[in-house]
């Protein structure tokens, strides 16, 4: 009996202990479940109310750091720029700014050039970083990408400098020539000679101003707002008529050929100006008693049929290094020859922007001493009109910002494919 009683007492004590241990374990588990996690401390519990929503709508890249320099909150743009890696701010100058602001509470701002992620060319990413305290424990970092703005500003400065230089040349020449006319007032032959030079410079100045206006218009206007079907043969005839006098003076034969009854969809005035510039360049850069050909054809393409208008000359040709830059504003292959022909260096830039804004492109094949072929490729009228009706509100214009300086691409033509080789009997100028 004594043994049985002892066993029962031990069993009772063990049961009580087990119950106590189980209850303690339950209470501990419940307390752990209710304790805030580290992630919730870094978002909901730490960020002031409404800050998360505000940061999500900011255009700038946003990073919130705690007192231990850990990232509490970061926008997707911050990760895309490479500012945050492994939960830490990866840019040391910005991290030091955050520490200084946390220490004294002052707002700081700095512009930095950061290496661009994913490129091995050492390109810099220009950013503006602003650091401010956020409450008593946090620091807010806002980063604005200035790369595109810097590029556009550089292009604008170059454009203004080039325009100033180009305008100064004929204006200065007119001033000097006018003084010469005054000094030679009693010499009729000298006055006539200087007056002739003044007319040449005035014409050059007028052409430059007009092409600047044309370039500004094609960059800022949407040509498809007033688009219509335009007959290619009418554009070709207008371009030939525009250059008839210059070609006749050099005894250059102009010939038109290719497929008939082709139409493109676009702004007639801009298309005529673009093709006219190509033909005018071909005439100006061709030797005397040669031939310039203009041919058009229809080309099947996956996105819809296109019309190709090729302008071919037998001129001096273009070197490979120059082909990469000929579509830049004010760039001239031969500056001395451009001065002699009155070229402004804007004609091909206008052609490039007109082609891009119409959903097409302009390409060039050339070899030194063998001539050049410029090909204007535009959507055929029917396909382009259908796409325009499907997308009446065009959100962005093709061709980029009006200050884009990309060089034109060349296409692998051969001399045998020059347009004038397949043309019918040419129209010989009187």
From TrEMBL:
It is a multi-pass membrane protein. Residues 411-420 have a biased composition (Polar residues). Signal peptide: none annotated. GO terms for cellular component: plasma membrane. Residues 162-382 form the Histidine kinase domain. Residues 383-397 have a biased composition (Basic and acidic residues). InterPro entries: BphY/WalK/GraS-like (IPR050351), HATPase_C_sf (IPR036890), HATPase_dom (IPR003594), His_kinase_dom (IPR005467), HisK_dim/P_dom (IPR003661), HisK_dim/P_sf (IPR036097), Sig_transdc_His_kin-like_C (IPR004358). Keywords: ATP-binding, Cell membrane, Kinase, Membrane, Nucleotide-binding, Phosphoprotein, Transferase, Transmembrane, Transmembrane helix, Two-component regulatory system. It is found in: Cell membrane. Its EC number is 2.7.13.3. SMART domains: HATPase_c, HisKA. The chain crosses the membrane at residues 6-26. It catalyses: ATP + protein L-histidine = ADP + protein N-phospho-L-histidine. It holds the Pfam family HisKA. One of its GO terms (molecular function) is phosphorelay sensor kinase activity. This is Sensor-like histidine kinase SenX3.
């Amino acid at each position: 009996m004594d043994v049985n009683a002892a066993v029962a007492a031990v069993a009772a004590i063990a049961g009580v202990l087990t119950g106590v241990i189980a209850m303690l374990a339950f209470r501990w588990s419940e307390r752990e479940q209710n304790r805030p996690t580290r992630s919730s401390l870094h978002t909901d519990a730490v960020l002031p109310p409404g800050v998360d929503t505000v940061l999500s709508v900011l255009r700038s890249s946003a990073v919130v750091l705690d007192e231990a320099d850990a990232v509490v909150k970061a926008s997707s743009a911050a990760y895309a720029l490479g500012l945050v890696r492994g939960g830490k701010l990866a840019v040391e100058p910005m991290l030091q700014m955050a520490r200084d602001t946390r220490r004294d509470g002052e707002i700081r701002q700095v512009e930095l050039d950061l290496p661009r992620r994913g490129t091995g060319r050492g390109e810099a990413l220009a950013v503006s970083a602003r650091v401010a305290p956020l409450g008593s424990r946090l620091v807010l970092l806002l980063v604005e990408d200035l790369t595109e703005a810097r590029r556009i500003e550089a292009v604008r400065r170059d454009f203004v400098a080039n325009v100033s230089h180009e305008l100064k040349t004929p204006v200065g020449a007119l001033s000097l020539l006018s003084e010469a006319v005054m000094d030679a007032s009693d010499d009729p032959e000298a006055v006539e000679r200087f007056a002739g030079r003044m007319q040449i410079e005035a014409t050059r100045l007028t052409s430059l101003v007009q092409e600047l206006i044309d370039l500004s218009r094609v960059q800022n206007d949407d040509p498809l707002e007033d688009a219509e079907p335009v007959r290619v043969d009418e554009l070709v005839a207008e371009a030939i008529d525009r250059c008839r006098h210059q070609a006749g003076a050099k005894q250059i034969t102009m010939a038109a050929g290719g497929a008939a009854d082709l139409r493109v969809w676009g702004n007639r005035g801009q298309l005529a100006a673009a093709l006219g510039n190509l033909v005018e360049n071909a005439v100006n850069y061709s030797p005397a008693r040669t031939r310039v050909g203009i041919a058009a054809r229809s080309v099947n393409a996956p996105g819809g049929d296109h019309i190709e208008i090729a302008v071919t000359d037998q001129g001096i040709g273009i070197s490979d290094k120059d082909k990469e830059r000929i579509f830049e504003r004010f760039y001239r292959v031969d500056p001395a020859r451009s001065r002699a022909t009155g070229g402004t260096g804007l004609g091909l830039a206008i052609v490039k922007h007109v082609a891009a804004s119409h959903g097409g492109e302009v390409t060039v094949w050339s070899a030194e001493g063998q001539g050049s072929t410029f090909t204007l490729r535009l959507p055929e009228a029917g396909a382009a009109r259908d796409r325009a009706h499907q997308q009446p509100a065009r959100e962005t214009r093709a061709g980029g910002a009006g200050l884009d300086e990309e060089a034109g691409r060349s296409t692998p033509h051969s001399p045998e494919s020059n347009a004038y080789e397949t043309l019918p009997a040419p129209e010989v100028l009187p």
